[in-house]
Specification:
The complex is a heterodimer of chains A (518) and B (367). Helix content of chain A is 33%, strand content 27%. Chain A has 518 residues and is of the alpha/beta class. A 6-stranded mixed β-sheet of chain A has the order 6-9-10-3-11-12, sandwiched between helices. Chain A has a 6-stranded mixed β-sheet with strand order 18-21-22-15-23-24, with helices on both faces. Chain A has a 4-stranded antiparallel β-sheet with strand order 2-1-4-5, covered by helices on one side. In chain A, strand 4 and strand 5 form a beta hairpin. The N and C termini of chain A lie far apart (54 Å). Chain B is globular, with a radius of gyration of 22 Å. In chain B, helix 3 packs parallel to helix 8, helix 4 packs antiparallel against helix 5 and helix 5 runs antiparallel to helix 6. The chains are: A alpha/beta (518), B mainly alpha (367). The interface between A and B is large, with 48 and 31 residues.
């Protein structure tokens, strides 16, 4: 088996940053090759070069031993390279088949031969065990299924080399297991896979070989079977990594956030959060876990004021904030690290320093008599960059859009922590982040807890919930299924609760009110 | 290219290409583009390269007069655009401003230092109110500001005509009585130094408007929140900004700029209120001005002067046998090329890419 892809001595510069510095990547045919690195390490740049989105400043690419110039994605497609992007590129009101054939519609005279396409999609789907319904509409299928549609899209175009960009970031544990099966099946059928990720567990489970990048440089290529997770993490971060969050016991104080019988409608107009009650005390982290789409987003939006409440009450320090504006809540001491950092957390077209004052832009020292004080704004950014180790090419003047996901998130964390609110609602704080950034953000959350803040941590990552929380609440179908102490919590039991098949008896009182739900 | 130099270079290339296309068309009609360029040079500088009267400042005056209203309508469009709104309403707001200015000019009797500011203020307020309507509808009911502003243009036109024809006792069915001297921006001094052009004091409020625009957008907290809403409405809402209030205010202020343009035309260029058979196109010129000017005050100033120059050069070119429509073609091509900026940038990057200068490859996201 020879190398199917060889990227030799690739260098790529962006203003203020060398994204790839003499990187060499050699991928064997029919293997799963992981590309590991922190955010900003240059993984995506390298793959964008392979996919023809960027041209390298120097270095060469060989496919099956032949030197090629990949000038655009069409050239990459012609070479049999397909990319499954982290953010799917699908038309939501089209069917699976319509999405797959988009741009390559098989024609029967002037008409699209949808029947033929559906057959082909079905055949491919069966061959690789994807189980996708070719006639389903994208908006009706789960995120996991949508990802399979993206995979099908590549296979339909006869891709031999598949690049997966952080494929598990949006999936549930169940879906991740299925994806791993699919990837194995793909290599068994002769495909080659490059897996961009920073999740060591997955690499250990699925990859054959792993190339590690750090700050644009190639650190090394290792055989996954002979290398421990700790060793790979060390290569990635450049120092030893602590996988476990170190924290002392919580010292819970008075109840700062109280939610009483809350009902919230979701976007479809039905109740996404049902008769939900919860208390979060000062000095504790309450983790809320559940499978994606079980009311977490609606709950967070209701607490923080982004969405209206149907009925019920939200109390902050015994003050009813149910119908207050976002601003009023924030002024009363409610902090919010939003789930979607691009939609809510940041204004990507602003520079970093402008993003760090979105709550306080009209207050002193950032403004005097309605005029912005650019110097004070920059000083604030410099301070937060230093304090929170936000890495940005051009300091306070960095366009936020050009920053890596991890540093964007650090910027949000810096801004919100700096507000020093009493109650923190933190949603998916580490989604898509690398080990180093995760470790850092977890530490910060614990530090805030120890300052006596009440923290509601909402996450889809069960590991994160179990590591950081003091108490764990499980949500299913918009209801609390149970609340357990984090210490001694059982992963299997939590999994069962998340899927709704187990209810914790201690919380019968709450669940009884909406009993007979299923 | 850095982002800043891009913002200057790309529009310049577009302008160059626009003139290039215009020249080709003139050649195709069997004439010399040199005639057009002489006319344009004359339009800006008053210098006639071959005429018997070498310098005629009248042309400078006319060129400035043509630029004033479209700079203001350009500011109007740009202000809304900075908040993520697409306002096509400058035309109607301008007419509302013009009508209000007419009313105050005719009905109020006061010394000049009161009357004239009052006339201008009336134009500003009327334009602002006309702009507030789509703003309120957008904020309250999420009605598209595009549709409402377009429709209100017609309402404004006919309201203006109805009022002029029926209420202000028109002289010959299309214009009102002449305004008293106290309501006018006219300046015998400016006219005398520009050989009786229509140049008037209107350029002063235009300059003030440019300064205010730049200050508000770039320096104030209000401008910051407007830009935040314009870039990412949801993030602005998350941060507790009043998105709906900003929408209303943005369209209101956009209307104020256009309304001022109306007042300046009515009491500067003319000295009577007019009924019009159709809109005069200042609003749409303003969109072009804002696009070419990149929604920045300084850019709008220059692109407004460019388009003003094209307008002013029209009669000169026509007298030399070049159809005036050529300027329209040039203007349209420039806007087209500005809209194609991304493509132009790609071509430049490609040309430069082969010279392999690492820092010129354009900006991009690292991982």
């Amino acid at each position: 088996m020879g190398f199917v892809i060889e990227m030799l001595g690739i260098t790529k510069d962006f203003p203020g940053i060398r994204a790839n510095d003499d990187v060499t990547l050699q991928v064997e045919e029919r293997s799963i090759h992981a590309l590991l690195g922190e955010n900003g390490a240059g993984k995506s740049t390298l793959m964008s070069i392979l996919f023809g989105l960027y041209l390298p400043d120097s270095g060469s690419i060989r496919i099956r031993g032949k030197e090629v110039h990949i000038t655009d994605p069409n050239a990459a497609t012609a070479l049999g390279i397909g990319m499954v992007h982290q953010h799917f590129k699908l038309v939501h009101n089209f069917t699976v088949t319509e999405n797959i054939i988009l741009g390559q519609e098989p024609a029967k005279g002037p008409l699209i031969d949808i029947r033929k396409a559906e057959m082909k999609v079905e055949n491919i789907s069966r061959l690789y065990g994807l189980a996708v319904d070719p006639r389903a509409k994208i908006e009706d299928i789960s995120v996991g299924m949508q990802q399979r549609v993206e995979i099908l899209k590549m296979l339909y175009r006869d891709a031999e080399i598949l690049i997966f960009d952080e494929p598990t970031a949006v999936l549930t544990p169940q879906e991740i297991r299925e994806l791993i099966q699919i990837m194995r099946r793909l290599t068994a059928e002769g495909k080659t896979i490059i897996l961009i990720t920073h999740k060591l567990k997955e690499i250990k489970e699925v990859a054959d070989v792993c190339t590690v990048l750090r700050r644009g440089k190639c650190i090394g290529t290792v055989n996954v079977a002979d290398t421990s997770e700790e060793r790979m993490a060390e290569m990635m971060v450049g120092r030893e990594v602590n996988f476990h969050v170190e924290k002392g016991p919580a010292k819970p104080g008075e109840v700062l956030l109280r939610i009483e019988n809350l009902n919230v409608k979701n976007q479809k107009g039905v109740l996404g959060v049902k008769n939900f009650s919860l208390e979060v005390r000062a000095g504790e982290v309450l983790g809320l876990c559940g499978i994606d789409g079980n009311g977490q987003t609606e709950l967070v939006h209701a607490i923080t004021g982004l969405d209206r409440v149907e009925s019920g009450r939200i109390l902050l320090r015994d003050r009813d904030i149910t119908n207050l504006s976002i601003k009023e809540r924030s002024d009363l001491g409610l902090g919010h690290i939003p789930e979607d950092r691009h939609r809510h957390g940041l204004i990507l077209d602003f520079n970093l320093d402008e993003n760090l004052i979105v709550h306080n832009y009209y207050k002193k020292p950032y403004a005097h008599f309605g005029f912005m004080d650019k110097k004070a704004i920059r000083r604030n950014a410099e301070r937060l960059i230093r304090e929170f180790d936000v890495r940005s090419g051009e300091g306070p003047a960095t366009p936020t859009r050009s920053m890596s996901g991890g540093n964007q998130q650090k910027a949000i964390v810096a801004r919100e922590v700096d507000l020093s609110s009493d109650v923190f609602v933190i949603a998916q704080p580490t989604r898509g982040l690398d080990v180093g950034a995760i470790e850092y953000i977890h530490k910060r959350i614990i530090a805030e807890r120890d300052k006596g803040k009440a923290i509601l941590l909402v996450s889809l990552e069960l590991d994160e919930i179990m590591d950081v929380s003091d108490r764990i609440a499980v949500i299913h179908g918009g209801e609390i299924v149970g609340i357990v102490e984090a210490q001694g919590a059982d992963e299997n039991e939590l999994g069962l609760m998340m899927s709704g098949s187990l209810r914790k008896t201690a919380k019968r009182k709450e669940t009884a009110a909406t009993g007979g739900r299923q | 290219m850095t982002k800043r130099s891009e913002k200057i270079v790309l529009p310049l290339i577009s302008v160059f290409l626009g003139f290039f296309i215009g020249s080709i068309i003139i050649i195709a009609t069997g004439r010399s583009p040199a005639v057009m360029f002489t006319a344009m040079i004359r339009g800006i500088s008053g210098l006639d390269i071959k005429g018997e009267l070498p310098f005629n400042p009248r042309y400078i005056g006319e060129f400035v007069v043509q630029s004033m209203p479209i700079i203001l309508t350009g500011l109007s469009f740009a202000f809304a655009a900075r908040t993520g709104l697409f306002s096509i309403g400058a035309e109607g707001q301008l007419m509302a401003g013009s009508l209000a200015a007419t009313a105050v000019a005719l009905l109020v009797h006061a010394p000049k230092f009161i009357h004239l500011p009052l006339v201008l203020l009336a134009g500003i307020v009327a334009g602002a109110l006309w702009g507030a309507i789509p703003g309120l509808l957008k904020a309250k009911y999420n009605v598209s500001e595009v549709v409402v502003t377009i429709m209100l243009n017609y309402v404004a036109l006919h309201l203006n005509n109805y009022t002029i024809l029926n209420i202000f006792g028109s002289v010959d069915r299309v214009k009102t009585a002449e305004f008293s001297e106290t309501a006018l921006l006219h300046s015998p001094f400016l006219e005398s130094i520009t050989r009786n052009s229509r140049l008037n004091w209107g350029f002063i409020p235009v300059i003030i408007a440019l300064v205010i625009y730049s200050l508000v957008i770039n320096k104030t907290t209000f401008g910051y929140s407007l830009r935040a809403v314009g870039f990412n409405k949801e993030a602005a809402r998350y941060a507790g900004m009043k998105v709906n209030r900003n929408t209303v205010l943005s369209l209101t202020i956009a209307g104020a700029f256009a309304g001022l343009a109306g007042a300046i035309i009515t009491t500067g260029t003319f000295n009577f209120g007019r009924a019009m058979s159709a809109a005069e196109g200042y609003g749409f010129d303003g969109i072009a001005v804002a696009l070419v000017g990149g929604n920045e005050a300084i850019g709008i100033l220059f692109s407004g002067m460019l388009f003003g120059m094209l307008k002013a050069a029209q009669p000169l070119m026509q007298s030399q046998g070049i159809p005036r429509e050529i300027t329209g073609i040039i203007q349209a091509s420039i806007v087209l090329f500005v809209a194609m900026q991304f493509g132009i940038k790609m071509v430049i990057d490609k040309l430069k890419g082969h010279k392999a200068k690492p820092e010129s490859v354009g900006e991009g996201a690292a991982t």
